[in-house]
Amino acid sequence: MQLFDGYIFDLDGTVYLGDELIPGARETILRLRELGKKVVFLSNKPLETRADYAAKLTRLGIPTQEEEVVNSTYVLAQYLKKRDPKALTYVIGEQALLTDLERAGIAYTLSPDEVNYEIDYVIIAFDRTFHYDKLNHALQAVKKGAKLIATNADRTCPVPGGEVPDAAGMIGAIEGVTGKKVEVVVGKPSPITVDIALSALQVAGQDCIMVGDRLETDMVMAQNAGIPSALVMTGVTDEAMLASSEIRPDFVLSSIADLLAE
Fold this sequence. Notes:
Elements: E1 6-10, E2 16-17, E3 20-21, H1 25-34, E4 38-43, H2 50-59, E5 69-71, H3 72-83, E6 88-92, H4 95-104, E7 107-109, E8 121-124, H5 132-143, E9 147-150, E10 156-159, E11 162-165, H6 167-178, E12 184-185, H7 191-201, E13 208-212, H8 215-225, E14 229-232, H9 239-244, E15 251-253
Parallel strand pairs: 1-4, 1-13, 4-5, 6-7, 6-8, 8-9, 9-12, 13-14, 14-15
Antiparallel strand pairs: 2-3, 10-11
Helix pairs in contact: 3-4, 5-6
């Protein structure tokens, strides 16, 4: 298959599953770098910081700098920093999201009742500690005017042996009780993420390729942005899902290893 100047790689289900690299991932990415190609890793998963992802990739044998990773917590923090830097937020999410908000100078509270629910934004992310009190806090804040924004809207997250619920579960619960819709989702397929990824890559969209395992995020984002797309069949998408979908990737590959196939 043809070579591109830049490569945007999804992580879960594309480069690795859990703590195991997809066979051929290391060799493919290192060879692309040897050829002078630029590489950026892109994840909707808001459970780790960019530095965490870089450290994991490095540990798995793909040396990576923090600047080569873009994830939804970083994108959301940068979005608020540009749009509303003095906002007070209530966070439904885990430590990585709090860390990125702190780095961007965005104020947050984990106890909105202490500020009488005078919150500008309720931020919703994949949160494995989600419970009834958080749902109630979100409801009370929205009733007093808070807007809903989210890191990502993935229904599930691929893990070894299957999938687990992702941020769509938290979004569905909060939209259900508040009657309000999330106004902005910054993660894939949002153009907000595209812009940050291309800025990190320093390659024009038409000269790079998006490689991922999800039709509704990776492939849709690429197509909306005019970026060539390659679907790999090592994550959540299977042959039946692909056959029944109206989303048509430019390339369909068994795995990331096929990127350098003759």
